[in-house]
Amino acid sequence: MFTIEFRFENSAPVKAYAHEGENLLEVARKNNVAIDAPCSGNASCGKCRVRLIGGTLKSEKTRHITEEEYAEGWRLSCVSTISGDAEILVPDIASAYRSRMKVADLSTGKEIEIFEEVKQSIVEAGIELKNDFSLLELEMDSPSLDDTMPDNERLLRAVEAATGRSEIRMAYSALRKLPDALRKGDFKVQCVIRNLAAYVLLMDVIPMGEKATIGGLAIDIGTTTVSALLVDLETGKILAKGSTGNGQIRYGADVINRIIESTRVGGRKKLKKAIVDETLLPLIDGLCHEAKIPSDGIYRICVAGNTTMNHLLVGVNADPIRMEPYIPAFFETNSVFAVDLGIEVSSSTRVRIAPNVGSYVGGDITAGTLASGIWNRPEFSLFIDLGTNGELVFGNQDFLMTCACSAGPAFEGGDISCGMRATDGAIDSFRLDPATKEPILSVLGDPGQKPVGLCGSGIIDVICELFIHGIINAKGQIVSEGPRIHRNEYGIGSYVIAFKEDADSVKDVEITEVDIDNFIRAKGAIFSAINIMLSSLDFDVSMIDDVYVAGGIGSGINMKNAVTIGMLPDIPMEKYHYIGNSSLSGAYAILLSEQAMHKVKEIGRNMTYMELSTNPRYMDEFVAACFLPHTNASLFPTTEEALAANR
Amino acid sequence: MFTIEFRFENSAPVKAYAHEGENLLEVARKNNVAIDAPCSGNASCGKCRVRLIGGTLKSEKTRHITEEEYAEGWRLSCVSTISGDAEILVPDIASAYRSRMKVADLSTGKEIEIFEEVKQSIVEAGIELKNDFSLLELEMDSPSLDDTMPDNERLLRAVEAATGRSEIRMAYSALRKLPDALRKGDFKVQCVIRNLAAYVLLMDVIPMGEKATIGGLAIDIGTTTVSALLVDLETGKILAKGSTGNGQIRYGADVINRIIESTRVGGRKKLKKAIVDETLLPLIDGLCHEAKIPSDGIYRICVAGNTTMNHLLVGVNADPIRMEPYIPAFFETNSVFAVDLGIEVSSSTRVRIAPNVGSYVGGDITAGTLASGIWNRPEFSLFIDLGTNGELVFGNQDFLMTCACSAGPAFEGGDISCGMRATDGAIDSFRLDPATKEPILSVLGDPGQKPVGLCGSGIIDVICELFIHGIINAKGQIVSEGPRIHRNEYGIGSYVIAFKEDADSVKDVEITEVDIDNFIRAKGAIFSAINIMLSSLDFDVSMIDDVYVAGGIGSGINMKNAVTIGMLPDIPMEKYHYIGNSSLSGAYAILLSEQAMHKVKEIGRNMTYMELSTNPRYMDEFVAACFLPHTNASLFPTTEEALAANR
């Protein structure tokens, strides 16, 4: 038995004991030491770097560690095994990762414009953004020796008089605050109430004179990224917005690895803690702080997440989701309160969870479908959500069909060495000057902003341009030479998009063959899924009237380029619409509107779920789609033309 | 600034920092060091003894510490101030206190008999001991690739089919257990449900084959003692019973000191933790363990406690209770769930709190009144609950009047040097042999049990006999000499009830003049309250038809002796009835029966509350009653006769 001491930059060390030959990443996980490992220990992502600062460790050198770094003690923890006592420095990658992701959706003018359009279209589809919350101002007589009615009775009578309703229920958290609030407000208070059919629910009591806002949260819980809006439930106004990395990332990049991790001893608690305590609570705190409302001033929460995220959030066993016959614990549930999840707001604050429709199509898709409006039109539409999981919905006002595929985090800039979210410093579009073949970049941010990395739309452009100009081949391999092309000691090629002198970075902003391969697999997963779903309905791409693309890929997405590389079907460009983070927009609508909640349930119930993983054709289709644009080039005549034009 | 190190017998030391002149008890409290201090720092009880084992401490010697003890380092912490670094040994008195109280109500055959009689009388008064809980056995089809309905929908449909009800709600905690329970039971389960008017509430899911009991808890939360019954909600059977000291005791012996403590920074949390985490949770754990049911198998809790105990339990500001105009936050509340209090059982387990009727008459009295049956009879009855607070209810089926007085813990054996609860080793009755004047004791327990201390009924007998035989005078002073009479260095006399050779104790079992004085003040409080309440209604004692005496004083209470010393009115003995812990019996009924809950609310609403503390006559009446039997001897002709017979 050896002693392994994990050291951190900002916290106390953790002492662990391990046997010879144990895997270091496993030892770390067993001892609750957070090491970022999106590939979950397959030595493919290179993110689980730690530094050996004392003792010994048996560890291969991989392509992710340079000679110099190895000499400095850097190791990948997933390929390291215990061979003696060791002192390990763990970089705070998880928190670095989270801050890298800490960019609000709706942070650019373009995104806000898209959000407002989506909101408008929801209203036009007949969904009133109205709810049953209101703020009630009350004035009572102060008690005296001749009027010794207890506080709650005094208040309930005042509510009765003001509302004309006789059945009134008071939340525990309101009761707890009551004596202080009444006396602070000199028996004049503002009450947060819900006007329900059966009774009036009294959720909070705030002394008169203090600011009283009926706050609500719309949260999109993605496998990789979590985004939230703090909303005024009376006006619908967005009071604050924020995003962060999903703290569960350390337990694996995809839902399957998360589920596996959750089935270990104490795992369910660990995963719930990672999303609630480490992700949502700091996010909510930040939003409340920004909006200057108290952290318990949240009276409804609406969550849109995939089926696994929903299960891990609720703390219910998710294992049946990944095992045949793939059965979730719930599609719909109305029994979850915020306090059940450990979010200490009003004791009667409910968590609305957008309904799941299958093991791999969840509330993010029902919410997104609601936002897309395809359920309300006669035309045949395709809705595509490009996240860590890619999900598709096809149909119209009469039917809806859905399926999911695992795309990985590439669309959100994950799994890509210079990947980042669509925010300041992100290269969101890219082309090669036809004459000089030198890059022409567009960078998000103020004029003069230097590039930092690539967001999803930028990656599509880069791959498209390199392919069209013959710098990479159909397999994504670099087949050209030049000052922008490097090869490392393992022979892996890369293309420099911006030299470090021109970038806001300590190294070149580049895309590697590994990055390109990761992205091609992601786009291949999406395209093959579209293909299988349409053909199972005896449809082909020509019959699609509209395509709605959603996800964190960025509003700058060049649909033409996405088609050119074989990610989306080769149909006329005017049929494509980018609708931003539709899961978040849908959550916003469901948060605000009883009618939207009703509608999203209806959408979920009427959607037919197709399980891709049991489809015998899927693997073949996927392999065929992992080329630029596809092994069957006739599916992409536009690409053929572009290639011909550049020959 | 000096360093004070508190050392304990069974746990790690606590290091604290304090300024010169700070009070040691205060320093301990600030640092969460538990020192038993029932008198809350007034140097009167002598319980806050600690031992100085290093450094210095400025401390008076009081009558509670002998010369020898002082030399050994024993000090009263409430009269000690910081004068330098110090090392303090804190005896584990709080836990000793708790274990001293760890005797179930209903632990003797006599008590059980009384409980059964009370239960029978409740039923005879027309209260059906029935509720809406039941256990539903369900069998479902297992899911398959062709039948992928999620778990909760599968279960809800089965419940719908079995009950014929369409509106079904599932508790969060049931959802969380669902996938595991279904698979463990091979899709055969037992559900704990409530058949409510508006819907069926599904509270728990238990795999078929596992033991399923619908557990409920009836809890009497006294200022000094907490008693609980674990009950099968289907049958009413008592599965386990237990008592313990109220962990809040370290913050003061009476409600006023508890409230003051709760208003300090963090105080409300501290007091709630003391009753929930330190008192109820271990008690509940013990009961569940004894009954062999899982610790979350509690589906309803009914609490009967005084107004202050209820407020501190709920965690609501209790300060307005003690300040004019004495306003509680609530009389009735139905918004409290067990999880709100930190009792982790089913998320839909409600806490029924027997309603309060005034700032000093609470749910223990409404529950006790329900149990006494006085609300159902035409005769005028007096109900007296002898606890740390003494409460009275007078009336009949047409009216009820109530008031409270602060009696202190003497009736439960507290504040008495050899006091204890009515359990094995307690002297529960005492008389002097008319010839030899030697004590004749009756000791609870198996034959041969040696005496350990005095319970409430024993104290009454001792004081009565010593008074009648002229050993003490009307002021409670020892006015006789003999081998059983000692005086300490301060001249305080004591009477030896059992020499240590004959006792199960390391010292003599004795009663001191201080004990007698404490008890006389307690009985004086009770009698003066009775007197004032009756006269305010223009009644006198001769018009009382029945007296029901309740409380932890013990079933052996000799009513005749209680009358002789002037504690209870001098009326014919056959009018007196001892009904045990009526608060607990009432809680049991309310737990089991919707009708009882309804009735106790009605009782509470119809009861007129009289505030004694603002009554100008109270102090005079109290002083007059602090004699044996009373300054107005004509109120107690029977005592006169007894004294005459012994002269």
TrEMBL record, chains A, B:
Pfam families registered for this protein in UniProt: Fer2, RACo_C_ter, RACo_linker, Raco_middle
InterPro entries in alphabetical order: 2Fe-2S_ferredoxin-like_sf, 2Fe-2S_ferredoxin-type, ATPase_NBD, Beta-grasp_dom_sf, Corrinoid_activation_enz, Raco-like_middle, Raco-like_middle_sf, RACo_C
Highest taxon of source: Bacteria
2Fe-2S ferredoxin-type domain segment(s): 2-94
GO terms for MF: iron-sulfur cluster binding
Name of the protein in question: ASKHA domain-containing protein
Taxon lineage: Bacteria, Bacillati, Bacillota, Clostridia, Lachnospirales
